[in-house]
Specification:
The chain is α/β, with parallel strands linked by helices and 289 residues long. 39% of the residues lie in helices and 17% in strands. The strands form two sheets. It has a seven-stranded parallel β-sheet, sandwiched between helices. Bound molecules: nicotinamide-adenine-dinucleotide.
Length: 289
């Protein structure tokens, strides 16, 4: 028992009572792996009850199992964020189990890269649908739980939308993705303005090169199946980062880890960022400055 207790306390921070997000409820989309998984684990470690959502429900359940094993509370909800019935499905499940929602992290996404002159309409449409339309629809569905008029019952609430360095600077081969990730900042800023009066903060986090399935070599064969179509993931010819590799575009001279990406998301969700809204936090190791 004492071993179990010390294991659990090792997972919980002592920096802010029972954690920076103690008692709060967070929905994280695309949380079965990569950055979203790290966000779900870190939020749970900081006391949040986490709704772990992903296209891959089995993998999402594994993240929930991991959270529960460490003494936390989580729920898996499978589904495609782009599906018309997705927002209602996840909000219903969240409210049924936890009765409220404090944070939504719109993280689910993938790339469908082509040079602009060879980008077909379907590659444009699906990237816009997943990265812009889906977050918009999920946030809209959550409006009754976020726009709390009663000032006394207000809790720490925020929306965090995941963007990319490609959305800030453009990127070769990513006209669709860069456009979608740029749109995310407009969406975030509008929420900050419309919902600020209800105490809801809205922020964007723009990642640079984070080591996940999205940034591994395309030749490794990872793919996502979306609306019955297979989309290959990764970057053509990408090498496994060697420990002594140099990254002249990145001042910190290395890629980021998913846990480092998650730490930035935690900051934005936490009371440490209580006066931060409408901001785009670049988590890029300095790339693009
Ligand atoms: N890795 C990077 O360098 C990087 C850089 C900038 C932005 N991003 C963004 O970060 C987010 C997370 O990406 P990652 O690098 O962790 O990738 P990842 O492929 O490791 O994880 C993405 C997760 O999202 C899920 N997902 C994808 N489409 C979905 C859908 N339609 N419905 C539900 N779930 C879906 C996948 O199943 C997967 O579990 C994405 O929005 C991505 O665009 C990543």
């Amino acid at each position: 028992m004492s071993a179990r207790l010390s294991q659990v306390s090792g997972h919980l921070t002592n920096s802010y009572g029972r954690g920076l997000l103690a008692g709060e409820v967070a929905i994280v989309t695309g949380a079965a792996q990569g950055i979203g998984r790290s966000v779900a684990l870190l939020f749970a470690k900081e006391g949040a009850k986490v709704v772990v959502s992903d296209l891959d429900e089995k993998k999402a359940q594994l993240v929930v199992d991991e959270i529960k094993k460490a003494g936390g509370d989580a729920l898996a909800v499978g589904g495609d964020v782009g599906a018309d019935d997705f927002p209602k499905k996840i909000l219903d499940a969240t409210i049924k189990k936890y009765g409220k929602v404090n944070h939504i992290v719109n993280n689910a996404g993938f790339t469908f890269d082509r040079m602009l002159h060879t980008t077909p309409d379907d590659a444009w449409d699906i990237i816009m649908k997943i990265h812009v339309r889906a977050p918009f629809r999920l946030i809209r569905e959550a409006a009754p739980y976020m726009r709390v008029k009663d000032q006394k019952n207000r809790e720490n609430r925020s929306i965090i939308n995941v963007s990319s360095i490609a959305g800030l600077h453009g990127n070769v081969g990513q006209a669709n993705y860069s456009s979608a990730k740029a749109a995310v900042t407009g969406l975030t800023k509008t929420i900050a303005k419309e919902w600020g009066g209800f105490g809801v903060r809205a922020n964007t986090v723009a990642f640079g090169y984070i080591k996940t399935r999205l940034t591994q070599a395309k030749e490794q064969g990872a793919a996502i199946e979306i609306e019955g179509k297979k989309v290959a993931l990764g970057i053509p010819g990408m090498k496994e980062p060697a420990p002594d590799a140099n990254y002249p575009n990145i001042p910190l001279n290395r890629p980021g880890e998913p846990d480092e990406a998650a730490a930035a998301v935690l900051f934005l969700a936490s009371p440490l960022a209580s006066y931060v809204s409408g901001h785009t936090l670049e988590v890029t190791g300095g790339q693009g400055i």
